[in-house]
Design goal:
By secondary structure, chain A is of the alpha/beta class. Chain A has ten helices and eight strands. An eight-stranded parallel β-barrel of chain A has the order 1-2-3-4-5-6-7-8, surrounded by six helices. Chain B has 320 residues and is of the alpha/beta class.
Amino acid sequence: MLLIGEKINGMFKNVREAVQNRDSRVIKDLALRQMKAGADYLDVNVGPSAPDPVTAMEWLVNAIQEAGDFPLALDSPKPEVIKAGLKLCKAKPLINSTTAEAAKLETLLPLAEEYRAKIIGLAMDEKGIPAEISARLELALQILASATEHDIPLDDIYIDPLILPVGVAQDTAPKVLEAIGEIRKLSEPSPHLILGLSNVSQRCLNRDLINRTYLVMAMAVGLDAAILDVFDDRLMESVSTAQMLLNRDIYCESFVEAFRRKKNKVY
Amino acid sequence: MMERYLESSNENVNRVIIGALQQEGGSRTSQVIIGGQNTLPFYLWSGSAPNPPALALEIADRPWPETSPELERVCGEVWQDPVSWAKKAVAEWGAQILCLRLISTHPDQLDASPQEAAQTVKKVLAAVGVPLIVKGPGVPDKDAAVLAAVAEAARGENLLLGGAGQENYRKIAEPALKHGHCLIAESPIDINLAKQINILISDTGFPLERIVMDPTTGGLGYGLEYTYSIMERARLAALSGDKTLALPFISFIGFESWRSKEAKTQIPGLGDLSRLSVNWETCGATSMLLAGADLLALWHPQSLKNLQTTIDKFSAKPEL
């Protein structure tokens, strides 16, 4: 299960201010603590309001790498911002993200190839997110086909079937579960399946409960990656329990601790 | 899915060094290093295994009780005296590492005291320069008392002490850590308990990097296949990143082989007992090698030779 820590994002006030003031302590601390909490990758997003996103991305990547050569998920709708980060990454990077839109694929897939990066493909295009599962499958297939043409290994491709807030579009939650199962069948071996988990509970009460319940449901149908809050202990305990119950990790009485040790790569 | 992962595993089995040289505070003239591989046993085309499996010969502080006439034929001359036995095992039989089994401390044998056992260990250490594994009698309370005394008496020698199980691991881990030794984590043919005992021992502050796992086994024909599956599954988990299972394995397959009736009594139709008994140990030990054993404790010097030949042949770099 690939876990991407979501905390280094300019949408959060502390990060936004740290970027504005070039205060690397805040960023290094977030990086290190997320890695210790079990993140495999760190999402890096300068936020929508950064005046010069390219420079901000460069500064963020460098600031994080002062704390360690951690794997980074470069998160931006703008390819030039992602490219600025890719150039600086010391560990295998992850591009977050492309859509099925031809212009995006043609820009981002060559970058993934050049930097041997993992890449997230969102099951949407320039027309937005299709309501029907069959249409999302089609877009996922387009992304897979294009990525394969660029010699990107299937093991580096993460398809995101896109979850919407349950308070806005409740019927999406079960549809996405269905999509996860279907997308897994698109190729052999199957691509990875990822969700931006916190979306499911936007503007809801009991967000943590919704997040961890949905994550376990999605894991049961084949989700094997997520962007999430690794500081949420109960969420992480649910992940470790689901891993064990899905027979992905070997059971022992201390299975939660065993999972933490497996994930904690910086002691 | 799992296989695809393993083709390029970045995860290593821990590397464990047994024996401390003089400059490290011990008195050994050689060391044995096991583990360190990032691939399945002898899959040398898909990864690296810097340390081929090591072979130990077992000796004991008194003759093997109720054992095979073949062992008496080979060890009978020396088995009244562990020092002579140790010397012969190294000088004549070529053992690189010895396992001293303190059977005299067993309550059903002589019930010898931990202090007596510790003296025996010191004598053997003085007689040979190879690293030493020390096994208690296999009774949890007595194992704890005996191994604590041995750990202290052999301070700094970096022995491999066994075994620490669920009932006694605290009492053994503490002196082993204090006096600079490695530990065998023992579990009763159960992968879940194997993982748990590793966690329990390391929770006491004893580093995982100095633990060797003994998942215990039956001999050939006596349930060996259960352990084989456990070892395979644990190793696959280790190579996929489960650090609590990324430990080298030791197998006391000699002990189990020589308990079997095939090794002890002439069975009509199965041929000469001398050959059959050695082959029984050789076949069981070879199976353990293929399952992933990093250290085998053998009893018969001919089995040692057979296994060394196998390891040498299997460790040749494959031409692709």
